[in-house]
Amino acid sequence: MARAGLLIASILAFGLAACGGNDAEPAPAADNVGAANAVSQAGDTIPQRFAGTWDTSADACTRPDSEMRLVVSRDRLKFYAGTARVRLVTRADGELVVAATLDSEGMTEERQYRLSLSDDGKLRVVADAARTIRVRC
Question: Which of 36, 72, 89, 92 sits at a 20 to 30 Å CA gap from 113?
């Protein structure tokens, strides 16, 4: 009976994967669905479309000492007073969830940042309860 259930789940997973288009990843075997999804949804780098220098306004971008400057690269977030080294990047609710180790002003702590890009190209960053919107410099 368990083999029949596994066979049916595999057939359904294959059918769903076939409907997904060219960019869809093939569905994993039924007994490995949770583990495979965690791996396919996670990585250790920030996608290139987020990379660059960001600040609160075009005017702030002209000031090299802006305290709201954020430089995003594939493996780190560089803030005015610290650098967060990326440990894990996942996707949730249309956002990137970045788990990172922040070194700031002599202290090291684990932090989580939620990043998303708006339709008009602005970067939204949520850390703790604080939310900031930045433009690309």
Answer: 36
